[in-house]
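A reminder from the course coordinator: this example appears on the midterm review sheet, so study it carefully.

Given structure:
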């Protein structure tokens, strides 16, 4: 038999053809590729994207990265993401898919906040992650401050962390900035002050000061 590659898809092979197929290692790669394509058909691709979004977590994923990963065009990938957004917009789900600067990620819906506050109510503050403590410190020293300003200082996304800190009642919204888009301002709460045994924010330790001239000299020693 000639040109077995033409019979890979949509063809029920005879016993002899199957044996010839098994004895021809050069065709294995093509078979594997086709199996992968079958898994990634439109009926399953949304589930694959959901799984990827779950894995990346708070960091999210860029549209271009996702399109490259699932081997789809940007347009097709946007349609897939829109379908997922529409799906989780239903009130039967407690999470939603959001996009900030075409960086997609799952977050909990605002309706979950009161329950999250109850869940975290008895959690000791010394169990806060390093990321949470860093975010809290930035807010305490710089308040009132916007999410974008926090992200610029930390170098990573802060949306999910802000939601967690809001749920624990360690921070609160403090109006809106006059900057374009009028982003929300954040500041620490009385709960934060109680948790860290502070009467006023003036009791916070001074931030270390660095002498740029000395620092440069040390670099070249």
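Designed residues:
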């Amino acid at each position: 038999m000639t040109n077995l590659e033409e019979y890979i898809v949509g063809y029920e092979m005879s016993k002899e053809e199957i044996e010839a197929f098994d004895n021809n290692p050069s065709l294995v790669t093509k078979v594997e590729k086709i199996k992968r394509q079958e898994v990634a058909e439109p009926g399953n691709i949304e589930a694959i994207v959901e799984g990827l979004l779950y894995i990346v977590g708070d960091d999210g994923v860029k549209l271009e990265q996702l399109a490259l990963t699932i081997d789809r065009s940007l347009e097709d990938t946007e349609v897939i993401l829109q379908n997922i957004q529409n799906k989780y917009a239903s009130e039967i789900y407690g999470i939603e898919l959001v996009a900030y600067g075409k960086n997609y990620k799952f977050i909990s819906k605002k309706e979950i906040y009161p329950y999250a506050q109850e869940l975290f109510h008895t959690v000791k503050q010394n169990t806060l992650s390093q990321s949470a403590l860093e975010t809290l410190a930035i807010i305490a020293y710089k308040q009132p401050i916007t999410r974008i300003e926090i992200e610029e200082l930390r170098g990573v996304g802060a949306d999910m962390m802000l939601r967690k800190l809001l749920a624990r009642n360690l921070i609160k919204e403090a109006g809106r900035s006059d900057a374009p888009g009028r982003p929300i301002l954040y500041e620490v709460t009385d709960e934060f002050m109680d948790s860290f045994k502070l009467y006023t924010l003036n009791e916070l330790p001074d931030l270390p000061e660095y002498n740029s001239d000395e620092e440069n000299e040390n670099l070249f020693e």
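The domain at 42-108 is CATH 1.10.10.10 (Arc Repressor Mutant, subunit A). The first strand starts at residue 61 and ends at 62.
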